[in-house]
Write a structure and sequence with these properties.
The protein is of the alpha+beta class. About 30% of the residues lie in helices and about 20% in strands. The chain is built from five helices and nine strands. It has helices at about 1-30, 30-40, 75-80, 160-165, 185-190; strands at about 60, 70, 90, 95-100, 105-110, 135-140, 145-150, 170, 180-185. The strands form two sheets. Strands 5-7-6-9-8 form a five-stranded mixed β-sheet. A hairpin with a 7-residue loop joins β1 (about 60) and β2. The longest helix has 27 residues, at about 1-30.
Length: about 190
Amino acid sequence: HCTKLKVLLHNRLILQKDNQKVLLDGLAHRDLVIHRLLSSEALPDGFKCHFCQKESFEMYRCNTCIGRPVTCQQCCVGSHKHNPFHQVTKWSDGYFQKTTLSNMGFTICMGHQGNPCPELPGHHFTSHFKRYEDEELVFVDKGGVWTFNVSWCNCQTRPDKVFQLLDMGLYPATTRAPKTAFTLQLMDYFY
């Protein structure tokens, strides 16, 4: 028993010394880390979009994308066609303020891999085959609750709205005139 206790105490002392080294290393880099984090909150020099390299007076940053690129509005919206639930900020009054892709005019297009339906405006609509009008829907994702304008597929062979949502990885709250949908990622998270 005495030998086991000595080994346990010895191992605990070694672990405590290793923990102290890690903490001291962290303290040695503290000022550099804080400087780096605060610098990342400033607007980069030049007011140029990361993607198109054009100068812009309105700059946006996605806090969810790796690297948090600073972009113009057009590139920000365009680069999020398949990621509408990312956390976006807009440079205003000297700092990045929360906004949404919806506030920037982003529309979720159902069908056609997120592209607008090629059948619009459509001359095939009749009293028996009515156009699905664009409408606002509420979406619930792991990152929050979002409201977006939705443009439905209106091809002659279009699926029902419920199936259009399911095809896009969105689970409707109801099968009758859905106004809310949940991402499958959210459902997997709670599964």
